[in-house]
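Sequence only, no structure available. Ideas?
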Amino acid sequence: MKMNTIPLIVLLLTLLACGEKPLGPAGGNGSTPSTPATPAASEKVGEPLSAWQEGQMDIHFINTTTGECVFVIAPDGTQILIDAAGSLVSTGQVNSSVTNTGIRARWDPTKDPDYRTGKFIAGYLAKCMAWTGNDKIDYVVNTHFHNDHFGGYSKSLPVSDKSDTYRKQSLPEILDTYPVGTLLDRGWPDYMYPYDVRKLASNGDAIDNYVKAVQWHAAHTGLKAARFVAGSKDQVVLKRKAAAYPSFVFRNIAVNGEIWDGGQTTTATATFPAASEIQVANPADPGNADKCPAENHCSCVMKISYGAFDFFEGGDAQYNGMSSFPWKDMETPVAKAAGAVEVMKADHHGVTNTNGSGFTSSVTGKTAEAMRYLRPRCWIVNSWTDGHPRQPVYEGVMGTMPGTDAYITNVCDAMGSYAEFSRVKGSNGHIVVRVYDGGATYRVYVLSDSDGKMTVKSISNAYKSV
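Reply:
I predicted one. Tokens follow.
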């Protein structure tokens, strides 16, 4: 969404001439789907999604019901996996306040005794990789160290076929299944910020399992592991035909509180306390009153651009704790750096204290307003437990983003009471954004998540990038 170089009056006249609406009063790019000139003549509901073709960009939100997983096929066939789900949380109850309200009544893959998230994701990727002819995952980005993003741990999981130092689950299993070029995360090589996460985090056993897998592959299979660098646009680049697609840019926006300045340079500013200054009462569960960033605050945040099209991926970015420590609203400054986008993955599945739509702290007076800057045309929720997105978050986003459509991988009956729930344009399946015409247009497809065939359930009209 490239808007800042066009004078406002010209932009407004252009939008009106194209039948588009200007920006709404509180955000939302206000654009409406245009009649398609290209794409999807071959796509039909009830048939498998057609193969990716060179020049297109795909963004697959893979529904595993155990967390988040996004797979990107760049215009030249470079392949990027962002997270790989993998929570082992019971389907019956997430915690004392969030109970099962019916999402898995539709489809529960975890009931299969042979189910593992990594195995399921690998099977989905195999279909995509057959389209590209690229048998390698060029990049893996692990946004942060929560099980629903990289994999849980249990002694009942099978030991890796590669090494007896770790077990198969989610990202470790992906590393075992496919050649991976580069892996980026927020902790390599020591995993010591904001403290020793392998020893002190509540899920330290899962993190340790993941780290051992990364270390083994870095030593034996040529995997290049590196820490995600805020501000960089060189850590993830096209591997096959870069010269043919110069408008593709993968920009690292933030990690561990280091936030890109939003300009043309790679300058990033540290916004969190230095490790020597961190005070935390319970490292396994840093609370809002602790002078310590929670794991979600440390997420790797990125923006992927192709021509006029922009996609924002913020991991579990949030503003939880900002009333005590204003810097804990890391969601607003990363959104400001990213600017307006066409498509946004909902931060942290749309739970409380995320996707800020105007919450103001009575203590600090600071306002969480990420959506004011991002203004996505399509807001995609990669839900994994019942009740994502939470009602106040959904209604906040829809209420302040009049031009935004929502897509949700899993919905439950309770969501029917949400205000403006009719603006959910697709749900209950894998969600695929396919970008056409050098980034000028895109469509959103919902695919069956349970038949193994990528059967198309619904097709949006074509959206126009602005």
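The CA atoms of residues 72 and 273 lie 33 Å apart.
Hope that gets you unstuck.
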